[in-house]
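Q: I have two molecules that I believe assemble together. Could you output structure tokens for the complex as a whole instead of separate predictions?
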Amino acid sequence: MAYPTDRKYTKDHEWIRVSGDTADVGITDYAQRQLGDVVYVDLPDVGRHISAGESFGSIESVKAVSELFAPMSGEVVEVNPRLKDHPEAVNSEPHESWMVKVRLSEPGAGEPLLDAAAYEALVKE
Amino acid sequence: MADTSVAELRKTPLHARHRASNARMVPFAGWDMPVEYSGITAEHMAVRTRAGLFDVSHMGQIEVAGKNAAAAVDRLICSDASALSIGQAKYSGLLTPDGTFVDDVLVYRMAPFHFLFVANASNVKKDFGWITEQIRTVGDAAAVDSSTRYALLALQGPASREVLQPLTGVDLSEIRPYWFANGEVANARATISRTGYSGEDGFEIFVPPNMADKVWQAVLESGRSADVIPCGLGARDTLRLEAAMRLYGNDIDESTSVLEAGLEWTVAWSKTEFIGRDRLAEQRAQGVTRTLVGLEMMDRGIARHGYPVVRDDRPVGVVTSGTQTPFLKKAIAMAYVPPELAVTGAEIDVDIRGRASKARVVPLPFYKRRRG
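A: Yes, here they are, computed for all two components at once.
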């Protein structure tokens, strides 16, 4: 699966797509393949402030639980309602399955981000 | 996630096949093993509805032979070895003097004076040392670690018999559950055992390592029209958990007794002597202080190995295995709890990473196949 160039990536295998002062956050195709079949996505409540590097939720697959780390700081303004009943969408459409929308408190700050080519090189190692 | 330690991992005779088939590999008990081929859910469902093929060559084989072999095995395990017929197998505990598990094993009676243990990969060395030491006083009996002489394939699922039958002259309908026969599969010398670790009908097939790939391919080819697929350790774990089969290192170990683990049915109390008997008899008289139960989660979340079981904000036990089951489609677990909570319907909490999640005690197994 190709890594879209309209967004950035983290070394923790999340993607972040910024538009204006908000950002969508999800996990990458590589991440979902490592996890295997996803059965729960545990997301924060709307209104919660999350800080860059902080764990803000978790993803459970049949065999393991994995934490979600915030790539940037901000306030959660929306969580993807579809993932509650269709967590498997994370496996089938990882790059469409955003998990949270965050209003960024410091756009431009946060974890170091990779572009699609750099991320692809990272997971090919 | 880097594969830095792969070089030190052992490889089964089917390793190249797994790699070539793009299976996802993980280190397991010192082996580089496939955890999934097409996905745990798909593989799990294949075994429940059709059949799946597993490479379980990492399992160890230890053989005990000699004129006093039956007496030796009777000392080692809590079940009645002497009562086994030639061609019969039994699930049993290889016990410490405390009545806890050195290992849990399948014991096969190959010949009047010849038994074979199938042991967990992580325990083979320990088991062999223990067995050798413990049978020293028994007389004419010797143990051999013959793990490298066998590749072991497991074909599991309701379609297993029809898939395997065209490949062998052995009449599979004649092999009852927990019995086995010697013969050939795809022209390879084979021991065919009607056993498994999935809660489904199926066969475990012992073949010479150099024939493993040929047999693997032949079984998949024979199963093509029935959509039989290769499966990994991930589905093996979710399948065995639905069937409430214990996993060494998770549900049982050297600190848990046969009675606590709910495996008293393996104990032949009629035997006047076996390692661990005295302690188990004592425990039976006094009652156990904890017991393994089934849990079904009522709140969202999966209880996993090591998570505390809580009642009225006090830790009262521990989860030993847990998953979201692909077939029953709910979160299930096994846990040790005090006997007073080991009652169907009892409600407890599981501490899931700091959050108390409700669960209730349900009977084991979670899944039982319909016998036809």
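A: One point stands out. Chain B has three domains: 6-57+150-242, 60-146, 289-362.
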